[in-house]
Fold FAD-binding protein.
Amino acid sequence: MSADDTVDVAVIGGGPAGSTAAAVLAQRGVKVRLFERDTFPRFHIGESLIPETYWVFKRLNMLDKMKQSAFTKKYSVQFVNAQGKMSAPFYFHDNKPHECSQTWQVVRSQFDAMMLDNAREHGVDVRQPARVLEVLFEGDRAVGVKVQKDGGTEEVRARVVVDASGQSTMLQNRFKLRQWDPVLNKGAIWTYWKGAYRDAGRDEGATVVIQTPNKMGWWWYIPQHDDTISVGVVGPFDYLFKGRGSHEQVYQEEMDACPEITRRLSTGTRSAGYYATKDYSYRSSKVAGDGWVLIGDAFGFLDPLYSSGVLLALKSGELAADAIADALAAGDTSEAQLGRWGETFNKGVDRMRRLVCEYYDGFSFGKFVKTYPHLKNKVTDLLIGDLFDDHVDEVWEPLETLYAEDKKPIPKWSEGAPPDADHKVNELYLPANPMR
């Protein structure tokens, strides 16, 4: 077998998680080959970043590139309740006066290409387009990948395989590791608008979360550069997708029923078709096995409510890369060594998940801050993505004092459907007439 057929680490997927893991590994002197099946730029949802991405960007040498980009700067998040009353903005800088408290609203096709180019600059051998057909195993140990090439296939041996294949989740599917969230059975329909309402000043790039008047769901309102706004509605799967007609029809009905959305969009023109995704909240029952690791959406996806998706992709890529580099140095690529970051990561995801579930269960930021003003900074810490430090746990006990007496505890993620349960795989419906 030639040297070209052997690497230290093979990474499947060039999205934010795969690009992060590959770049960090290359920084640590590891020979990495990354396989991305699509030609970039390519469409992807998930445009809003949260401030804690700053620290991973800094490590990846991405900060200057982000600062020089045209992406809209984001300083805050704001909530609108079912009656149309707006909360005070949660300004990240007021909570943490550091440049890390300013983040961005990105166009993912551009952002993902920047991240992959950054991995190349760090010395990652990027093969694109290159489709990985399967992960190769000897017994229970991953030993490489089979890749489609020039009408045939080639095998590349690797000491560790990183599955960053997104929601196709190659290894999660192979081992039936996917567990669906027992609470967050949601879906979303969205499109893009030009010329719609934008706030002024430092609120211009704010993410606005708008509860639907019937409290069945919520809208995201995400300003991007080039006068584009991403606007989507989220709700229970059955509510949005069963017996209500086309995605366009449902979107229009929900828009007409929400005065805050109709006000904001009254000056705008739709500039894209209608997109939809269903059944998107899941997690793997483990992060690693002998010779393999899951990161990003290949491990799991939570919910779009607080825009945590890219942060969790970056953080899982960083944590996994450090564990892999240490494992290679120690000559131990066992499940225990490669997965040692999993407990820390899952604990952080659980914190964000609880905040998401509390919102769906009626949690009011305004009421909480009015009752416990000294804890506003802790709630803001959660909103900026400071998920991996125990100090934020101070909010949970006071939050519970606002519960109704008959409120039941939120089921834990691990109390969801078993890994091998029969469940529809995550689906993304692209518009028939993209207009974009």
Q: What stands out?
A: Confidence is low (pLDDT under 50) at residues 432-436. The domain at 3-71+106-179+282-347 is CATH 3.50.50.60 (FAD/NAD(P)-binding domain). The two ends are 46 Å apart (CA to CA). The first helix runs from residue 16 to 27.
